[in-house]
Design goal:
single chain, alpha+beta, 2 domains, 3 helices, 12% strand
Length: 154
């Protein structure tokens, strides 16, 4: 999916006027799609370190090819980072049937750690394919309902 639009509130950006005026004439586009989710994040000597093999996810080449075609058809330069980014990371404490296939059970409780729950995108075993806010809200609602039903004093 390719989405786009103008940049919001450009006049309020803390940038020189000439840069703000240039941004007003531009449009932001974004390519969205499901990747392989094969990245790892760790701390090394107190700094965040991200390792990710983009060649394992064909979506990145598809997005690049689409941007190149758009640039060719419009005659406009498209600026894109060399390394893809994500604003919707998921996974890390995934839902599974048991401790060998995941971190949390169907009610979001961490295996072998009663009372600890994961109610955010970390429990999603894969990206939903678009902005995940509704999926996260549904997961959290499910967890809350199950928790209340299990702990309700009668």
């Amino acid at each position: 999916m390719i989405g786009g639009g103008g940049l919001p509130s450009v006049d309020s950006y803390p940038l020189p006027k000439r840069i703000r005026e240039r941004l007003k004439r531009g449009t932001m586009i974004a390519g969205l799609g499901e990747d392989d989710m094969c990245g790892t994040v760790s701390l090394r000597r107190g700094k965040l370190h991200i390792e990710y093999d983009t060649s394992r996810s064909p979506i990145f080449q598809q997005i690049k090819d689409t941007f190149d075609k758009m640039a060719s058809l419009t005659g406009k330069k498209i600026y894109a980072p060399k390394t893809p980014i994500t604003v919707h990371p998921t996974g890390g404490a995934c839902l599974g049937e048991n401790i060998t296939s995941g971190v949390v059970d169907a009610d979001g409780q961490v295996f072998d750690n009663p009372g600890l729950y994961v109610a955010d995108a970390a429990a999603l075993p894969r990206a939903p394919g678009g902005p995940p806010s509704m999926t996260i809200a549904a997961w959290s609602d499910h967890l809350a309902s199950a928790f209340i039903a299990k702990h309700r004093v009668r």
